[in-house]
Amino acid sequence: MSNEALKKTITLILSGGQGERLYPLTKDRAKPAVPFGGIYRIIDFTLSNCLNSDCGKIYVLTQYKSFSLDRHIILGWNNLFNNPEVSRYLHILPPQQRTGQTWYLGTADAIYQNIYTLEREKPERVLILAGDHIYKMNYAEMVKYHVERGADLTIACVNIPKAEANQFGIAVVDENNRIQGFQEKPKENAATVPNDPDTCFASMGIYVFSTDVLVRHVSADARRESEHDFGKNIIPAMVHENMKVFAYPFKDENRKEQAYWRDVGTLDSYYEANMELTKVAPLFNLYDEHWPIRTYREQFPPAKFVFSEAANDPNPRRGQALDSLVAPGVIISGGTVEQSILSSQVRINSYSHVKDSILMEGVNIGRYAKINKAIIDKGVHIPERATIGYDLEADRRRFTVTAQGLVIVPKEMPME
Amino acid sequence: MAKVLVVDDDKNLRLLYEQELSEEGHEVTLAGSGPEALDYLKAQRPDLIILDISMPGMDGIEALGKILAKDRTMPVILNTAYSAYKDNFMTWSADAYVVKSGDLTELKAKIKDVLKTRGIPA
Fold first, then answer.
1. φ, ψ (nearest 5 deg) of residue A135
2. Residue B122: band (very low, low, confident or very high) from pLDDT cuts 50, 70, 90
3. Residue-level pLDDT at A86
4. CATH architecture label of A4-276
């Protein structure tokens, strides 16, 4: 696709958040590097959108615990984007401390501290993305919409049911989708979309700024005591100044009746979004070649399932996975897996039982162990006959347990 | 009366500014380079900084970044012989941008503006 507007647009992916609400999954990795769906990491969805939209000038702004994120991007994505001959690149940009002596104080400060990069590039527009949502979107169409309206700022918004408005930042728009104001998680009187009294426009945290406007506002914000946040400071100020701020109605490339966009910022929402993938016909389609989702992964042998004693034996030794996603390199050796997601090199040993769980790379489930509704992070070896997820009181003494009863065993935790 | 720090590598210009701004009633301090200014700022807080851009070693743009990183509210007027830096995004965080001329009328007016905006008695 040749898109002149896109050629003069650079993309910044903000990947510097601590991801505290995903702790302990973010104990040793940045939130965008948290594994998802068996073979992916969260940032893969945003990067796949960039690739499929033909965004060719990308900076990933990293900060905390960025090693595994850097490694993943370099190994998996460099060769898909980087081609200096045709001005396509993907660069990882750690804090430079050119215009700051602190780490990023907020999303707006992350841009302010990287103004040098904008100065060097002088793009006409800047597309700002967060590396922590699961969705399929064509950013080129949003940029086109921004240009057509001569907007100062365009914010992608997704239609959500009015009843859920209290979980989102809601844009108040007029009949031309021009934003008049915001409601932050409104408990009542949520503003609805014109001509649709049942739904609201929730901000997706995806912005297209005209570069001059962006630089002027983050520079002014940097001079003030503020939270240095787009949602809290920059955007309300722009709306207040009556600048041309538009909502862009999210057009889902997932091609299902219901739009799919998930914030996986909490342990429970992360878990639910993963579990949805195990359904017979999940809302989020990983198999649609129209909008492929890519990742980096090492090469492993095919997933293998062994022991097939007759199911009517008294205590059959059967290796099986039902309603599950199983990555390459997994060996299911005489155990049973149901409604679960298994990353590469997981091993399920005889007579063990895993249900409603996410097992990350290299997890080993010992014989007769029983796992229910748990996330077991990378490299954990569950001993023989151990049980997790059946006695939450006992689990709480050793692991993180969420209000909804989800147990999280942190990365490489010694158990034996 | 405001405390004004003038940062410029041109000694004659510094002396001119000292004389002219003192006549306006300001208390003027001079620094010949970015590092000298940053050194001064370790212990002192002027009401306003007049900052040259084109200086040997650390230029005014780099100095501006460092000054604001230490104290985001510090008023700074960039004062340069070149108008081209106006398009440089790195200069947009300054309070004002004044192109040098033999006549200091514009600079003096901008000083008044900035002090007034910041509520500092001139």
1. -175, 170
2. low
3. 87
4. Alpha-Beta Complex (3.90)
